[in-house]
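Following up on my earlier thread - several people asked me to post the actual chain instead of describing it. Fair enough. Here it is, all 296 residues.
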Amino acid sequence: MTTVTRVGDQTDILGESPLWNERDQCLYWVDIRRPAVRRYHHASGRIDTWTMPDLVGCIAFCTDGRLLVALPDQLAFFDTATTSLQPFVATPQPVAGHRFNDGRCDRQGRFWVGTMHNVARAPEGILYRVDAHGKFAHVASNIRIPNSLGWSPDGRTMYFADSLQYAIFAYDFDPASGDIGRRRVFATTSAPAFPDGSTVDAEGFLWNAEFNGGRVVRYAPDGRIDRIIELPTHRPTCCAFGGPNLDTLYITTASQQMAPDEMANQPLAGALLAIDVGVRGLVEPRFVATADPTWE
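Reply from S.P.:
Thanks for posting it. Predicted structure:
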């Protein structure tokens, strides 16, 4: 049986976007709805929390040590040392009630991020690719909940899910240009469980958090289910490998809109969880940003 450990005593409303920083040996993640960026210092166990000015969909590491933060109206740089937030680029084609959700850097340092309607979940979201100059490339449309962004170790396969299609898709991917090619169904889930955030391990297997499914599933590169880890809460949101040897799976979870009796039955809802799964992850790519932002 796999042992699940709680990290810290904080409870997230909607924990998301966990990323391990091998430079400072810390795990970073967001609570979208608090809204806040959090950091877990592995050696000391300290949890730092920084309040954000608006809903924060996801984060990415930058080559200069700052965080790229996805706020509804902009991508911005956040410096944890000074707690300063510097605008980088405005959200293209802003729509009232929309926000960013899942985002991640590919292995060449480009940032990929999806938008969604914050409440209605209407098929109005867009998947973007953002380059070092802050230029947005429109990649896909009609998305309800963008999730599960990830890349194979060789960077030639991209994973992505529109969660309410109850499927994870795999795309042929050109690392040089960032263009996506042929799409195929990689894995499916059964409602009400849908694919939320994912991570890819050093063996090329994809780990996916099933929201409403109460589990994390490890998929082989051919889409076959390799392992299922049942969790003590129904709403895991995303996962990431971390720890000094990159062999701990960290899992963010949600507690939003849970009734008191649900919380009583799931006391770890909203907690950051950690599991030793006997597999190593990969170092998280960093966003390569120009010093000349295109803020308008």
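The helical segments are 260-265. That should answer part of your original question.
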